[in-house]
Amino acid sequence: MFTPILLATVARTVEWSPTIGLIMILCNILAIAIGKSTIQNPHTGPAAPSSNMFGGLSLGAVVGTLCFGHILGAGTILGLSYIGAI
User: Fold this and answer.
1) What are the domain boundaries of the chain?
2) How would residue 44 be classed by pLDDT, with cut points 50, 70 and 90?
3) Which residue of 13, 59, 77, 84 lies most exposed, with the fewest beta carbons within 10 A?
4) Whether the model pTM is above 0.70
5) Following CA atoms 35, 41, 42, 45 in sequence, which dihedral angle do they give, to the nearest 10 degrees?
6) CB-CB contact of 28 with 14 (8 Å)
7) Computed over its alpha carbons, how large is the radius of gyration of the chain?
């Protein structure tokens, strides 16, 4: 009885393309910039393996900002695909 309703609410997803990859990279760079300026203690904890690449952020700060970047990227990609821009 609920099957048609559930099938109607499934979001349309797009296939991977270089445009999708570029959007995700840009969202992760934006998240790192936001994280560097807003994290109160960015150097607390173990250092990231290539900490110079991430501006000296600790491992926890890098993981947190990249998780936030992927959330931003997924939302951006889904939103742009919903309006038909990509």
Assistant:
1) 56-85
2) confident
3) 84
4) yes
5) -140
6) no
7) 17
